[in-house]
Amino acid sequence: MQQPLSPPKKQNLYEVWGDTIDGRDLVLSIGIGAVVSLGAYFGAHYLLQPIVESAQMAKTYAMLVGVLGCLGAGVISAKLFPPKRDVQEHAADPAFRAQVVADLLKEYGSLGRLEDLSDEVIAELRELELYDLFREGQAREEQAHLNGGRP
Amino acid sequence: MEMLMHEIMMAFALGLLGAVVFSAIGLVSGTDETATLAPLTMLVVLLGAPPAGVLTFFLAGAVAKHMTHAVPTALLGIPGDTVATALLGDANYLRKLGVPHIALRKMITGGAVAALIAVPLSVLFAVLLAPFGGVIKQFAPWVFLCAALAIAYFSAGRWASVLTLVPFVVVIVALQALTGHYGVKLSVSYFLGIAVAPLIASLFSLLAPSEREHMRRNEYRVFSLAPDVKGWSGYFPNPFKVINRRQVKVTAMAASVSSATFVFSPVAMTVIMGEVIGARIKQAYDRLTTVITARNGVTESTYIAETLIPLMAFGLPLSPVAAGPAAPLFNAPPRFWVDNASGQVNNLHNLLSTWDFLGYGMLAVIVAILVAYPFTMNFAHGAAAFVVRKISHEAVIATFIGLVLVIGIWEGGLLGLLVIVTVGLLGGFLARFLGFNTGVQFMGYYTAVLSVPAIIALAG
């Protein structure tokens, strides 16, 4: 298990639109988004207007450049401001997996029976080394049933 | 002959472009379909792409996005886009069981199977519905009104959403009158405003001191990235080894049913189909994997059917997808338009034949699968790690702010921008507090544009 990544003290973290951001970085990236995309749009419009015959098409091409500008703003912001995320890479804990089976039992009401499965699903479960986990879960459920619902 | 070859090559090239661009966009969590598909398709339409190319760009983009959205959903436990939220529960169970790669592979394979089935079925349903097209077009304003009321009732807000339609439509009508006063007519600005509404509402909330305190966090958000497991050799794994026979059958059935029910929202259909299938499978692991396969299949089939059926049969955007992400296929003035008074349309409906829709629809799906399927199978882990470690949320927000500014100013100058912010702020809060969701808001827009003039005419 990796150590959790602690944010530096000076950051002001907020959850906006489903993820964590830093207040100052957000303000700056919104500024970058505005300046770069509008700069690209108006710049392209100014340059294209004399070249492209129809004013309508000049505006459409400028929009294309503006959309590319948005992407550019995203790239610049990504380079300047690192994500405020703590990414941990690890395999699921075996102890944790028994808990998942218990949660599934609670949600579905029953784990069902491994005996009802087709051979290909059994093979898949064995290959993933999950067969015994569900076997034990099913045994526990059946035991609880025999005890009249008491665990 | 040469003309046809040229057209097919253009359609292929644009389909490939759509598939590549939206495969990349799908990897980034929170990239809403409407906010990305609608403006980029609009751009392709206005740059003068041939009708077949417009269709392949949109369809290949949608299909590819709904395959790569499985990457953040399965490996990181964050929804890739709006419909992916419906898959998060099943994906999280499989992730915690230590088999996220199984969730990922089943999802994208289910998507591929469903997409291939959905195109011919949608064409079939459209052909069956086409005889009613004339009547529907004649009564379009009333059909839209009924559809808006039905979609509102089936949203999370129930009666609150039905009643909220009234003030929401009034606001849109008022905004149109305001911009009309200055000779500005807007459409994509409304769609973009509705699509980015949650972002706009969050940014406004952040400025209010009491709301800001609720949003404050002391720690970084923890993401656990599942380790990489590759279970096959070669570049293109056989889909029928990834999902079993029953899963193919169930996914095909779910895709067929969800192709026919094209007036319901894709998220709702994805949830409902999963519940129906899950209730019939007893063993927990079998149930989880089969449901996630079928559910991602439904995200593909609803998008395809909800685009193709209204487009072919009526030429009117009569479904939540057609009214939102696919809107530029129906309405992209000055090139494509729907006339509210006469029910006349000029869009892909009359520019492509039934065989064109079938042929180019299949072409788009196949191109999207050839791009997104092997890419996701082979590089999912690397792609997820790159996105979560290198692309900050600030960068995603900067991109969307740029998009709002460029599209708003391009369509209507300062007025366009004001409309996006107004609709976004209102829509965002209505969705958050009342469950008046995006699908209902799109229908509200169409009610304002198509039904209100008819109601006023009737009232004299």
Name a few traits of the molecule.
A: 151 residues; mainly alpha; 2 domains; two-stranded antiparallel ribbon; 5 helices; 61% helix; B: 460 residues; two-stranded antiparallel sheet; 2% strand; transmembrane helix (chain A); transmembrane (chain A); membrane (chain A); Tripartite tricarboxylate transporter TctA family protein (chain B)
| Rg of chain B (CA only) | 21 Å
Domains of chain B (count): 1
Give the DSSP E fraction of chain A (strand runs of 2 or more residues). 5-15%
Low-confidence segments of chain B, given as residue ranges, are: none
The radius of gyration computed from the alpha-carbon positions of chain A, rounded to a whole number of angstroms, is 28 Å
What's the count of strands of chain A? 3
Which pair of protein chains has the largest interface, and what are the residue counts? A-B, 86 and 70 residues
Give the SSE order of chain A as H and E letters. EEHHEHHH
Report the count of strand segments of chain B.
4
On the 0-100 scale, what is the average pLDDT of chain B? 91
Proportion in β-strands of chain B: under 5%
Secondary structure tally, helices of chain B: 22
SSE string of chain B = HHHHHHHHHHHHEEHHHHHHEEHHHH
Strand order of the largest sheet of chain B: 3-4
Q: pLDDT average of chain A, as an integer?
A: 88
Main β-sheet description of chain B? 2 strands, antiparallel
Largest sheet of chain A: 2 strands, antiparallel
N- and C-termini, Cα separation of chain B: 54 Å
Keywords (chain A): Membrane, Transmembrane, Transmembrane helix
InterPro entries (chain B): DUF112_TM
Protein name (chain B): Tripartite tricarboxylate transporter TctA family protein
Keywords (chain B): Membrane, Transmembrane, Transmembrane helix
